[in-house]
Amino acid sequence: MILKSGIKQSTITKISLTLFFFIVALILGSIYYMDSNIKAEQMAEMRKSQFKQLGLDLANASDYLTDEARKFAVVKDIIHLNQYWEEINVKKTRDHVISQLQELNSPQEEAELLAKAKRNSDALVETERRSMRLVLEALGVSEKDMVFEVATFQLSEEDKNLTSEEKFEKARDIMFDEKYAEDKKLIMEPIDNFQVLMNTRLDAELQIARQFTKRAVILQIILALTSFFALGILLTIFHKQYNLPIKHYTQDLKKFSFENKDFGLMPKGTQELRMFVATFNQLYQSFQEELLKRKQAEETMKVAKEEAEKANRAKSEFLASMSHEIRTPLNAIIGYEYLLESTDLSVKQQEYISKIGISAKNLLALINDILDFSKIEAGRLTMEMISFDLYDLIQDVCQLMSIEVQQKGLKLNKEIEKEVPRYIKGDPTRLKQVLVNLLSNGIKFTEEGYLHIGVKVKKQKRDKVYLLFSIADTGIGISEEQKRYLFESFTQGDASTSRKYGGTGLGLAISRKMVEMMKGKMEVESILGEGSIFYFTAQFQVTDEIIEENKTQEKPRWMDSFMNKKILVVEDHKINRQMIKEVLSHLGFDTDTASGGGQAVEMVRNNRYDLVLMDVRMPEMDGYEATKRIRAFVDADTLPIIALTADAVEEVATAVKEAGMNHYMTKPLNPEKLRNVLRKYAKVNEIKQKEKDSVFPQPKGLISYEEVIQNLGGKKKIYQNILQQFIEEHKKDGEKVKNLLTSEGYEKARFMLHTLKGIAGNIGAMKLKETVEDMEKAIKESNLKQIESTFLLFHRCLKETMMDAEKIIQSISQEEDTNKEKAEYLEEKQKIKKLLYLLQGGEAKAKEFFTLYEEDFIVIWGLVTYQELKKFIVRYEFEKAAAYLIKKIGLEGEKNV
User: Fold this and answer.
1) What radius of gyration do the chain's Cα atoms show?
2) Which end of the chain is more exposed for a tag (fewer CB within 10 A), N or C?
3) Domain named Histidine kinase: which ranges (predicted)?
4) Strand partners for 460
């Protein structure tokens, strides 16, 4: 009976186990009982078969003896005699039958019948011995040759007196007469009686066994029905206590809805299921309460999210606004610094201007870091995938940091394992930014010792390579506590670090994010007081593309003709407006200005301009709106509009394009970049500066100078100085080469010729260049005969080239203006002083200054000295450059300018 409270699951389990073991016991018992009865039936059948066979065996044995005895009497073949006695003495079939009857516990009556048959058979043997003795005597077989059983039989006197024929006949008669048949019958009758008794008894036993088997079958059926009944009871319990309740719960759950606050399951089934349902109902009620709380929380979160989005938008707008507001005065500072550098300044003023420029650029770098961090947070920072030379990039980074390293008296080592591919695809700018940041930190926190940059392959899969970069230093180290916060934004090791060494704590956070964008990971190992090692991995693509080095070549100089080009500058900031106008006027533009978008629209409507520089953030009407209005009546192809913006964010490019502007530049403006953009969009006709009609004679010789002077922008003074330097440096090269060849200094000679070849090409001495090439080739191939013949040609060509150079120098000197030379000399001396000052101070700006006035320095020193000095400056070896400049130019008295 199922209680209202439900049956316990343990009770159902006990009932199930009890029924199971009961059914198993019944089945096993019935199987044993059935097996016993089947075996009993089989045993009865087997005994019947055995007893029947025994009777047959006895009858067959008797018949066999009779057949063999008769055959011997008839055919007189001794074989039959032997087989007869073999059956009696060896096989003993009759004796075995009697023995088996005893083993089978045959009833006495049946055993006596077979024993009687055996006795009668033995009596018949005597008759058969007589027949056999008669045959053997008739055959004349002596008694000693007879079978023992036959030899021991004695014939009667009557039989002995018979003739041989009579004995044969007598033997046959004995075996076939009526008496023998009667004796034979006496053997078979007991056997037949035995078969009848045995069959009757065994049939009765078999019938009893079969009855028991039938009973066992009936018992099996009863047990099967009992098992099915017990199983039915068990299934009924399971159905009522499990299946029906679960089905009921399933149907109810189909109607389940979180909106139905009164939902609940009706307890059914076992106590455990009822407990489960009760728990479910309680949980559902609790869930409804939590759901209500969650909905309230979601509403609160929704409001908070909207506020956060507003704050994020405000943050982005703040960054853009602050970027604009900071970059706007920076634009003016950097622009005026550029303009001031073009004026005559005292050494002290140059120092002030230089420091202003450095501070402005440092501030610009800080702003860029903040914007980079903002882009990373917003997921808008993208990675390029371009081919670059990794070895050159590492070298550039080392050269870039070499000045700071030298200033602190440190050493900078690099190690690139040979397995590292030289040419890879990735973002070289971001990689360089990470390396420079880590090296800068290392230099900042290292007072003595060294820094080391290493690169090796971590793993490579097909065309993907994972490189492991390491930057080690012997600085102050990082504690375990500091490591926990090292890569967090705006965080440094501790407050004292920030006070002593400076920094915002953004560098490592940005670097780590960039490494992660390169599918890598950044880690650090450090011992406080001993140094640190920063590791980071990055994924690149291996490429077979060879990056050609940007070799410095002498390219034709072009004069930008900005004359007669009219430009409109639209800028709401007065100082910036004035500064940009000064820069443009310096470049040769006819410049108008407008303080707002509306004024710009009217000025474009009423005037013709070759180009418009449009600030995008202005009050009342911004640059985007002004551009759209201008485009309404001016086609984009006829009037280039360049956006000026201090918002260095991704959205600017899209907004500029949508507004119809051609290009945009970020503030602070770089004068050289501005010049390149103006050259492109103002449609400047770049023309080679034509030479003025020469007043000096055009000597014909081995130097083709016309094209060289044109490539120098028509500046003959520069070319004159180059030729003078060429004569001074190389007039003795013939003798030097000869001495080197005599002392087998072939490699040094080839190096000297290689240098001379480049200079010959630069000054237009193409015949000398060709001769040097032949000489260089002969030395490389170690062809002594060829070396001798080409040297003679080289030596003569060098002398003739020198003579031509002197003639050209003399011709140029005739048309030089002495006063102009003097003024230029004073200006040149001032530039040299400034360069020396920057070099001695280890200022990175020295390279920029040197590049800006490269034409003037070539004029001042000549090409050879200029190129030698350039080697040091390009590698940021400023101390060597300063020493070389003092020694070469003779500024010993101005070493401490």
Assistant:
1) 63
2) N
3) 321-542
4) 465
Phi, psi of 126 (to 5 degrees): -65, -40
The least confident of 2-11, 410-419, 710-719 is: 2-11
Q: Is 178 exposed, middle or buried (0-12, 13-18, 19+ CB in 10 A)?
A: exposed
Q: Which residue has the tokens 């990055």?
A: 538
**What pairing do the DSSP bridges indicate for beta strands 450-461 and 464-473?**
antiparallel
Query: Which pLDDT belongs to residue 819?
Result: 42
Helix axes 863-874, 854-861, angle to 10 degrees: 130
Whether the ω angle into residue 421 lies within 30 degrees of 0, i.e. cis, is no
Range of 238-247, 713-722, 786-795 with top mean pLDDT: 786-795
Residue holding tokens 């994924």?
539
| Residues written for the chain | 897
What pLDDT digit, counting tens, does each position of 669-717 carry?
777 678 788 888 877 654 433 333 333 334 446 787 776 676 665 667 7
- Our measurement of the distance from residue 536's CA atom to the centroid of its chain's CA atoms, rounded to an integer in Å, reads 16
Q: For 379-427, where are the alpha helices, taking DSSP H only?
A: 390-407
- Reference 523, options 475, 470, 476, 473; nearest CA is 470
Average pLDDT in the 812-827 region?
A: 56
Q: Kind and range of the H or E element at 813?
A: helix 784-813
DSSP string, 159-172: HHTS-HHHHHHHHH
Q: Which token pair is 652? A: 């600017």
- What gap in Å lies between CA 367 and CA 333, rounded to an integer? 15
Q: Using CA atoms, how far apart are residues 832 and 865, in angstroms rounded to an integer?
A: 13
Taking CA atoms, 442 is separated from 70, 412, 430, 436, 492, in Å, by 132, 10, 18, 10, 14
What is the CA angle 585-589-595, rounded to 5?
75
Q: How far apart are CA 545 and CA 712, in angstroms?
A: 34
Overall average pLDDT of the 348-365 stretch: 63
Buried b (16+ CB within 10 A) or exposed e, 392-417: ebbebbbebbbbbbbeeebebeeebe
Please give the backbone phi and psi of residue 636, each rounded to the nearest 5 degrees, phi first: -65, -30
54 CB contacts (<8 Å, ≥6 apart)?
97, 100, 101, 114
Contacts with 299 (C-beta within 8 Å, 6 or more apart), sequence order: none
Of the candidate ranges 322-326, 462-466, 857-861, the one whose mean pLDDT is the lowest: 322-326
What is the distance in angstroms between the CA of the first residue and the CA of the last residue of the chain?
115
Q: How far apart are CA 712 and CA 854, in angstroms?
A: 11
Task: Give the angle subtended at the CA of 168 by the CAs of 165 and 173, to the nearest 5°.
Answer: 125
Tens digit of each residue's pLDDT (9 = 90 or more) over 614-649: 998 888 899 999 999 988 887 656 789 999 886 655
Q: What is the pLDDT of residue 144?
A: 86
Distance CA 62, CA 188 (A): 9
* pLDDT tens sequence across 187-206: 878 877 877 877 787 777 77
E-only strand ranges, 125-194: none
> Within its chain, how far is the Cα of 874 from the centroid?
39
Report the distance separating Cα 505 and Cα 494, nearest Å: 10
Contact 64, 88 (CB under 8 A): no
Give per-residue pLDDT as tens, 143-182.
Answer: 888 888 888 888 888 888 888 888 888 888 888 888 888 8
Token code pair at residue 415: 């190690």
- Angstrom CA distances, 41 to 33, 52, 216, stand at 12, 17, 12
User: Token digits for 291?
Assistant: 């759901």
- Residues 105-114 have a mean pLDDT of 76
Check if the beta carbon of residue 78 is closer than 8 Å to that of residue 146: no
Phi, psi of 507 (to 5 degrees): -55, -50
